Amino acid sequence: MVAQTELSEAEVDRLFHALADRTRRDIVRRTLLGERSVSELAADYAMSFAAVQKHVAVLEGAGLVTKQTRGRARIVRADPEQLARARALLDAYAELWRGRIDRLDALLADDD
């Protein structure tokens, strides 16, 4: 079993659901470079403002971004700590598979 790296099963599901969409991955990338208002984000996509808001809500629900109100603007900022937890989870899966491959290599070497 792979260690959950501080994430529950439900959190892992939300995290990978959020990252499964190209627009949401792009929003995370852009907000890692610097905070953006939802309006700034929406200006770069061929979709409605409401659709971008929904994408941001999914990312926020997964903990990948935070949203803060400043006056009339909603400012979106990526959460690098949540991304680090996601990376740690993927690293744990990679280590699991490397271990399985190493054991398979050892079994095949024993047959020689």
Automatic annotation (TrEMBL):
Residues 4-98 form the HTH arsR-type domain. SMART domains: HTH_ARSR. InterPro entries: ArsR-like_HTH, HTH_ArsR_DNA-bd_dom, WH-like_DNA-bd_sf, WH_DNA-bd_sf. CDD domains: HTH_ARSR. It holds the Pfam family HTH_20. It comes from the Bacteria. PROSITE patterns: HTH_ARSR_2. GO terms for molecular function: DNA-binding transcription factor activity. This is ArsR family transcriptional regulator. It comes from Protaetiibacter intestinalis.
